Amino acid sequence: MGRYWSVLRLFWSTAIAAELEYRLNFAIAALSSLGSLVGSLFGLFLFYRTGYRFQGWTWAEALVVLGVFTLLQGYAATFLAPNLNKIVTQVQEGTLDFVLLKPISSQFWLSARTLSPWGLPDLLFGVIMIVYAGNQLGLHPLVYFRALPPLAFGFLSLYSLWFILGATSIWFVKIYNVTEVLRGLLEAGRFPMAAYPAAYRVFFTFVIPVAFLTTIPAEALLGQGHWGWGVAAAGLSLVLLQGSRLFWRFALRFYTSASS
Amino acid sequence: MTVPAVGSRRLRRRSLLGLLKLIRVMLSVYYAYMVEYRAELLFWVLSGTFPLIFMGIWSQAAAGGQFALDSVTFVRYFLAVFLVRQFTVVWVVWEFEREVVEGKLSPYLLQPIDPVWRHFFSHVAERFARLPFILMLVGLFLWLYPEAAWVPSLGQGLMGLGAIALAFCLRFLMQYTFALLAFWTERASAVEQFWYLIYTFLSGMIAPLEVFPEAVQRVVLWTPFPYLIYFPAHLLIGQPTDVGQGLLAMVGWGLIFLAVNRWLWRRGLRQYSGMGA
After folding, report:
1. Do A195 and B66 touch (CB under 8 A)?
2. Cβ separation B187–A200 shorter than 8 A
């Protein structure tokens, strides 16, 4: 375990050192995050400006969901996209061989090899939005800790789903756009599930578990959710994580390296 | 740089028949190429679910609140948005950027045809390859939600199609203009990404312009964005639309971008040295 920590430290410090070479990129990313934030707020405002409200969600409460969504986007851009979208290149070029030869878990290597600070502005804006909305609602500072476990489970679930999709590149090399499908569906997490018609709610809870990624952590923060959902979130993330490990082992059996 | 000048002169000397043949060849070549990656294409179609998500949330909102449109109109609108999006997807900036960075543009410059036409026809051909998937999805949707079915009149349909074609051309032209920045910077796609962000929120993809605040609506109508999605979608579902104003805006913005585009192209070729040359 200790070895993994020191390897992780090395991975990330080199990644940050490499990315700091491109400071302009960071400025662009920050600008994009800001633009996307303004757009998201505008999108939400369109619903609330006429006095309509999502079933049981005030403006500030809906802001919490949007904040969690922004946080999730930042997390995906920082940790998931730079690693998991590269699996396909490794398979295509056969460099996966070198990863498999290393004396650490190949899933760990593929999932944690690098990180991109481009998602940091989103993480920051997400936190700001949540704290702002929390202040409006008069939340006690300690309450925020209540949202951490479901949030962590959400992060874990998203990672597992993304990794499983990335792992399918062992069979289908042109997989870049499968993760785009997932990303497209994640957009549904911008709004609380209560805003959707029943059929959508079923789909986004049981088929693509978007509800567990944003609405349930937000409900935990607001102290609204039923505790059963928290348990379900934990169960889901563990099942998905274990599923991703099993799936990766299964997929590797079909890996024949490039040009062989 | 004389290469494109020679190319266009020779092209002009060709008969119209030759031109038609060129178009046919290009379309069939790129169609064959696109059909090769059919599975990939299906995923690209599916990744455009953004309007369908907003369809759910807006139709739900319209059922419970006071909005400019009713629930069924929202559903139709977003279905039309989905269609328009599918037919106006453009990715030329990523391809062009790669060609410039890797020096692959050089051989194309030697051919007696402006390289833009390759990109253009590959995009057009891809629409045809995509068509079966789109029809399947729309069919599935109408089967699930028959109340929303509508048949545009012949006039509406033709106008909608024309507007979609124009919107595609405008979007292609804009993105190709940004792509030309690749001659100077390695991150031309970053410009496009930022532009895309504004496009997402102002084009009518997240909501029809009717529900925007009055002041925002007026400003947005001066930008090119609503004509890329809102305008064709509106025509398709047969909502009252100011056609003349929309066409004028599209042509106007098209001319502006065309001028910038040609200027950048001439300057860019002078700048371009070809990787490894």
Report:
1. no
2. no
Whether B12 is in a domain gets the answer: no
Q: What is the pLDDT of residue A184?
A: 87
Q: With a CB-CB cutoff of 8 Å, which residues 15-44 of chain A face chain B? A: 24-25, 28, 31-32, 35-36, 39, 42-43
User: Within 13 Å of residue B207, how many CA atoms lie on the same side as its CB?
Assistant: 26
Query: Do the chains contact at A35 and B198, CB–CB below 8 Å?
Result: yes
Summarize pLDDT for A201-227 with one digit per residue, the tens.
999 999 889 999 999 999 988 888 788
The ipTM is 0.85
Does B44 contact A195 at a Cβ distance shorter than 8 Å?
A: no
Q: Which of A41, A47, A205 to mutate to test the interface with B (most CBs of B within 10 A)?
A: A47
Contacts 24+ apart (CB under 8 A), B216-225: B221/B245, B221/B249, B222/B249, B224/B170, B224/B174, B224/B249, B224/B250, B224/B253, B225/B198, B225/B199
Asked whether residue B140 is domain-assigned, the answer is: yes
Any domain includes B75? yes
Express each pLDDT in A138-178 by its tens digit.
888 888 888 899 999 999 999 999 999 888 888 876 666 77
The reply to whether residue A50 touches residue B53, judged by beta carbons under 8 angstroms, is: no
Of the partner residues B56, B60, B66, the one whose CB lies closest to the CB of residue A51:
B66
Confidence of residue A259 (pLDDT cuts 50, 70, 90): low
Residue with tokens 């600070």: A117
A137 near A60, Cβ under 8 Å? yes
Asked whether A66 and A190 are in contact (CB, 8 A), the reply is yes
Q: How close does chain A come to B47, measured CA to CA in Å?
A: 4
> For residue B220, what are the domain limits?
17-271
Contacts of A185 in chain B (CB under 8 A): 49, 53
- Domain positions in chain A are 2-252
| A197 touches B: beta carbon within 8 Å | yes
- Residue B217 has what pLDDT? 92
Nearest CA in chain A to B195: A32
- A162/A183 Cα distance (integer angstroms): 9
- Given a cut of 80, is residue A122 above it in pLDDT? yes
Domain count for chain B, please give it. 1
Quote the pTM value: 0.88
Q: Assess if residue B8 is contained within a domain.
A: no
Confidence of residue A3 (pLDDT cuts 50, 70, 90): confident
